[in-house]
Amino acid sequence: MAFDLNEFRSSMQDGGARPTLFEMEITFPDGAARQQPFLTKISEIPGSTVGVITVPYFGRQLKVAGDRTFATLSCTIINDENYRLRGRFERWMKRIAQHDNARGATRLDQYQTRLRLTQRRRNGSYAAYYNFYDAFPTALGTIALDWSTTDTIEEYTVEFQYQYWDNVITSPDTPGLSVDITLTT
Which residues sit opposite 50 in a β-bridge? Predict the structure, then answer.
């Protein structure tokens, strides 16, 4: 197949998806109001992997699909001067596991919640939603303090585990219309 610049150009009419056009939403499990969007500087659309089960058969290796695993969701958060969001994450993690003893939440609905990452188009419309189900923080990063650092806003990372994610890709021709992709065998 010959390289066709016009075909490539026509597929890039909208300029391509931009990594800066996203927002994260969270409803904290304590029932407090949703932070929409919270101060996320960096996030990602994590991958997933389908494992392989190898079954030996008469000297051959039959490979069949195994279990799906999901990568950790990592976000870099901008710290506000009142530590509102940082404090929420600290209290959430304390609810999961206390600092000074082995107690913590025992019911999943006490510490798991849904996160949503929304990717936007350059015209402001929604391109895709990624929902992360039964998510909870497992690592709260440090905040670097340094007298010689100027003209910088504090930031820290939060790593989330979750059970699974799903996505909705919206049609550019009909905003809000989802396009379901189904594989049939």
Answer: 68
pLDDT band at 2 (very low <50, low <70, confident <90, very high): low
pLDDT in tens, 107-158: 898 999 999 999 988 888 888 999 999 999 999 999 999 999 889 999 999 9
Residue 67's domain spans which residues? 18-179
Residue 45: which CATH number? 2.30.110
Rounded to whole angstroms, the Cα distance separating 143 from 126 reads 32
pTM: 0.80
**Number of domains making up the chain:** 1
Whether 143 is covered by a domain: the verdict is yes
Question: Pick from 26, 19, 150, 158: which is nearest to 79 by CA?
Answer: 158
